[in-house]
What we know:
Blueprint: H1 12-23, H2 26-42, H3 48-59, H4 63-75, E1 79-82, E2 85-89, E3 93-94, E4 101-103, E5 109-112, H5 115-125, E6 129-134, E7 142-148, E8 151-156, E9 161-165, H6 173-177, E10 181-183, H7 186-195, E11 201-204, H8 209-224
Helix pairs in contact: 1-8, 3-4, 5-8
Amino acid sequence: MVEPTAAPPGLELVRHWCRVAAQTTESQRFLLSHLASGLVGRGWLHPLDKLRESAADALGEPVDRVNADLDALVALDLVTVQDGKVTTVGALLAARSTGIDFVLDAQHAVHLVGPLAALAAAVALHRKGEVRAVCADDATTRLVLVCDASGIFERRPESIGLFLPAWDGQGSPVAYASGGGLFRDDDALGRWQEQHGDPPGMPVASFLFPMAAAELGEELGRALAPLFDRLPDYD
């Protein structure tokens, strides 16, 4: 496994993906942009075999080149594959429901990998919209983060907090990023931590959320943005 970048617990994934994103090649970024446009535009992706061919046609690349780039992205955990289908793209987007969605407008929404992706989605995709989720404590209370291309600027309710799990480098970064969650208030966050044995990571209380969300969302979003903006018709 890739060694985690030295960082406070809960921030290892931010540093890791900032580093990994900077190491991608231009053709890999075009492929990630193509995959992202499929999820954002249609909400789904073709099975892997057909996806390879459609990506080659759309990008004007030989299938062998697309295959090599896809394999490299899987090795970096910037694309994950399960049962012959791509399940996550760019450490941000998920092809299956995760309980956290980025709603762009009445026709377009995309699933997000986890709470860290919720902070970075608007900046990375350079889109306005709403991140919608339910409280990870009661699985009932509806939570909304209102975003524009610079990040989150409104919470409903304003008491929302979150928990970002730590990553020790011994498992898939995407799998770890899907943990933690968004919470309706500090009491719900504290209760969830207690019920889960105080897991390693970074709790972000409601009063710290505006500053932490802005900083983390901007840092990770800016690092991931080049993975999604390589197609001229993306917008």
